Amino acid sequence: MKNVKTWLVTGASQGIGLELVKQLLANGDNVIATTRNSKKLTDALSDFSPQLLAIDTDITNESSIANAVMVGNIRFGTIDYLINNAGYGLLGGIEECSASEVQANFDINVFGLLNMTRAVLPIMREAGSGTIINISSVFGLIAGAGWGIYCATKFAVEAISEALEQEIKPFGIKVIIIEPGYIRTAFLDSGSVITPANIVAEYTDIAEIRRKHKEDLPGTQAGDPVKVASVIIKTALLNAPPLRLLLGSDAVQYATYKADMLLTGIENNKKVSVSINYA
């Protein structure tokens, strides 16, 4: 008989989150799906499943998260896997992005992930097991013009996850960082990427980046969301999963470029770097 597991997925109403919910339910597992619009999620599913608990949740609000975790834990008795998937992009130059726009992006992409993680960890610690899967990006490893703020949120996710893995390993809890490249979802054209209110005309290169991401890239991304969701689930089920997993040929390319750049810079400047030591 199948050992049914319980998964909590944030940002579950579209994109990778929705595909994860579909595949997990098809596998016969329980799913606690948090989203800003649970009706949008249930409307996107072909059949009602009693193993789905869809909850309207504001991941920037700790009380809202605590309620979702409590209700889900009461319903299914445990939470075995947490997939921190919720997030959105802010596409604009550093000068263009206001303090409130930057704060809002960090509130969802970073503090929302922290809020949910803190809420679920006591359940996993008590069980002596569990896995936390944080959906980062290859742009948590490398940054580019126009994406500075979004990349900063994903760099933060990488650092948090790396430290968390060391902190909770003694409790039998695993951490996985998923680093996708461009995936063919509606992320670029569904309101999941926003632009700053204050556009500075002089940044013509960033304006062209915005145009490409709005007009040229949607529908051409190399990554298949169905395959992405399947790999995430299979990786989470491994006894010894990797801490980091790049997804997509473009992700491998970007990460390799960054690694090579770092190694070259270290080697070229090694004499200066070590010269500041006491003799």
From TrEMBL:
GO molecular function list: oxidoreductase activity
Superkingdom of origin: Bacteria
The UniProt record lists the keyword Oxidoreductase: yes
Alphabetical list of CDD domains matching this protein: 17beta-HSD-like_SDR_c
Biological source species: Flavobacterium zepuense
Listed Gene3D superfamilies: NAD(P)-binding Rossmann-like Domain
Keywords from the UniProt entry: Oxidoreductase
Pfam families reported for this sequence: adh_short
Designated name of the protein: SDR family oxidoreductase
Similarity remark: Belongs to the short-chain dehydrogenases/reductases (SDR) family.
DNA-binding among keywords: no
SUPFAM superfamilies, sorted: NAD(P)-binding Rossmann-fold domains
InterPro entries per UniProt: NAD(P)-bd_dom_sf (IPR036291), SDR_fam (IPR002347), SDR_oxidoreductase (IPR051911)
Signal peptide stretch: none
